[in-house]
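## retry 2 of 3
previous attempt timed out at serialization; input unchanged, resubmitting
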Amino acid sequence: MILGIQSSSDIYKSASLFRLTAMLLAGAWLLTAAGCFVGNWFGGSDRPTVAYISSDGENSRVLLNQSGEDDPTTISPRNAIAKSVRWSPEQRYLAWVAGGEIPLLMLYDTETDQTDLLVSGVDQDQPPVWAPLSDRVAYVSDADGSPDIYMVDIATGEQTRLTFSDERERVGDWSPDGQWLVFTRSGHDGLLLRNPTGVNLIELTDGPDSDPVWSPKGDRIAFLRDHGEERDLYVLRPTKSDDWADDTDEVAVADSEYDESDPSWSADGRLLAFVVGFDDQSEIFNVRVDGSELKQLTYNTADDLMPDWSTTGDMIVFSSFAYGNSEILYMKGDGDGQTRLTTNDHTDSQPTW
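## retry succeeded, writing output
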């Protein structure tokens, strides 16, 4: 059964009124920004390290930055064209895709400070997806003639093909217990599950669904459903047991006239951060997994995008155009204390920690 959240549209409309107030307060806010946006606002070096992509229009580099640090660390070559980046669990490894004529899947090891090539010929438009034990990375490649899902063992370099279809596939997420990969397939409605051994294909949903993200406990999957003029945020869970092969229940946790995107789970699995695209800008919201307590977190009169919850569970990092170009900011989980992490003329995006 699909349960709509009746109050979400009203809350979004109220948010439009708040934007007018935010514009009036913007001048005063900017006067205090220099004093408020300091790197050690939330305790400095005890925070996880944020990885992100910084582009100067020609090259895109992978940078690491920690609150309280003055200068970020660059881990990619100067002439690299970084396309996506993803931390492993516990932040030992960083997988990133280098675009080009032959896109490459790269691996940075924080303990050795070394960067190695994992796989060549990957789909540069898709981010890598980590296994929960940080021993394997899933990716998409057309190395065998069609864009299918593969995984690579980071210790041995052994590659395993998981899907065999002529249609382009997009890998979404790896279940926290390591048993499933959730993905979508071009020309096929619905979310699909595949075991990392390459067997047991399961069809989870039958709608025009995308962007699946597993909850930290593995009991739910957040995803987006396309209704034509907008996409809405849904949560899926098994109804009878923890077995995803059983019946599942879909709940529309954010159902409105506006377009929603970029779902991200809090560490305890109770909240989802996501983006709402209004007519003139995008803002970040939080909602509980049952659709209650919908709350707007940003009011920046500019696009706020790509929220990502911290592994500590109390912070959200995101990209924002509040300063003209895209910069990386972070804030508390309730939206308080928005703090600027980057200050440069580049386009900073895809923050992850």
